[in-house]
Structures are given as C-alpha cells and as structure tokens.
Amino acid sequence: MTPTEPISKFGITPGRVLAGKYRVDRFIGSGWEGEVYLVTERLTGAPRAAKLFFPERNAKDKAAVYYARKLERLRDCPIVIQYHHAESVRLQGRPVTVLISEFVEGRLLPDYVANAPSARLPVFEALHLLYAISSGLALMHERKEYHGDLHAGNVLVRRRGIHFEIKLVDLYDRGKVAGWNIREDVVDLVRIFYDAIGGKTAYADQPPIVKSICCGLKRSLIHQRFPTAWHLCRHLDTVEW
After folding, report:
1. Where are the coiled-coil regions (predicted)?
2. How far apart are CA 123 and CA 77, in angstroms?
3. Alpha helices in the chain (DSSP H)
4. Partners of 35 in the beta sheet?
5. Whole-angstrom distance, CA of residue 26 vs CA of residue 13
6. What is the CA radius of gyration of the chain?
C-alpha cells in the first residue's frame, strides 16, 4: 500500500504496542470513521478502548477533535463513555490519531437481541431497555446535545436483573442544527425499539403501549409526540399498562 492510498482497514494484530504505552489485545469493531480495539495500558495494566481514525475520514483531525470535545462536554452523563486523551501513531506509512477511552464490558445490542428467543425481545424487557436508553439520552438533550448516529450497533448493553446499563458509542456530527438532531435521535431510538421487538412482521400484533410509542414509524408523528428523549421518558412514566 502506498502512503497516498486511502486506508480502510488497520488490521492490527494482538500484541502490537501503540505509542509505546498500549498493548493491543483484540479488535472490538469498526465504523465509518475508523476501528476500535481493546488495549492494555502497559504501565498500569488497566484495560482501555482505543479508537483509531482513518486519515481520509479525519481530515485535519476534525472528526477526532469533534468526538473528543463532545465526550468531554458530556463527561458527567452516565450513558457516555469516559474519554481520557489522544495519541498519535504511525500505521501503514500514515499518521493516525487515536482516542483513548474507558473500556466498558457489555454486548452490542444486535448481538444481545440475536440471542433472545425468536431473536426478538419480549415487550416488557424491550420497554425497560427503551427507558434505560431514553433516560440517558434525555440528559444529553437537556444540554442541547445529541448523538447524531443512533442505531442498534452503537448501543452497548449490560444486563443487571431487570435493569439495563447502557453506553452509547460513536457520536457523530450530522451537520444540522441541534434541534433537528435531537428530534432525529428520538426517531432513531423508536426504530431501535421497533426492531428489537420484531419489526414489521410482529408490529400488527403488538399491544397499544407499543403502538403509542412507535407511531407507525411516521417521523412527523414521532417528532410531534416526543420532541426530545425526555418527553419519551415522561410518556413511559405515565402511560397505563
């Protein structure tokens, strides 16, 4: 690969050391902006998550800086991972920016749902999941912040009895005004709920509480009923079961 050829995969092998400080343990996942690895801090032995940005999708470090600053602004929101610092490494002949964050145990939501009976969640369980995500997202929306790319693959789930511990990953800048992004977060969240309980094939037989939330996936109705995640939380707190 020549230095001018775009990088679309890092493919870092376990055992490699990044920035002289972090030993790569395993690949976690990838997205449009780059790849994420589980690493161990050599000095302390602490596990960390390292997000490496593809250079062509991080021109002048715009994507990395946006992501890091947003995580820092939302540091006291429990649903957001804790950002630590940035490093610069050289891979495939190119400088690559790496963001080091806390490593959170859990499973991505598609994997969690896939292991449920019939590969879908029971309504009661899905409502608990929806409430956990929406209550965390509501704290972001109260600050005029948003996720920007909310889908099941960006939801990290850890089950505690009937409760869910949720972390959202891969916050994104859609380039729209905050109000529009906040409303779209809620639309995306409703779609996550809709898919988790079986999607189109199961929707006709769902109880009224489900349909009061999904609104037939009509964006305008969801915008009107739930302008922010807080409004969705309020609905879940007061709706009759």
Report:
1. none
2. 27
3. 62-73, 109-114, 123-142, 178-196, 200-203, 208-214, 219-225, 229-238
4. 30, 52
5. 8
6. 19
At 135-179, the pLDDT tens digits run 999 999 999 999 999 999 999 999 988 889 999 999 988 888 999
Backbone region of residue 38 per phi and psi (left: phi > 0; alpha: psi in -120 to 50; beta: other values): beta
pTM, rounded to two decimals: 0.91
pLDDT digits (tens, 9 = 90+) for 71-91: 999 999 999 999 999 999 999
Please say whether the beta carbons of 148 and 174 come within 8 A: yes
Q: Which residue has the tokens 């999904």?
A: 214
Q: How far is residue 14's CA from residue 109's CA, in Å, rounded to a whole number?
A: 25
Dihedral sign of CA atoms 169, 171, 172, 176 in order = positive
Residue type for 93, please? G
Residue type present at position 102: E
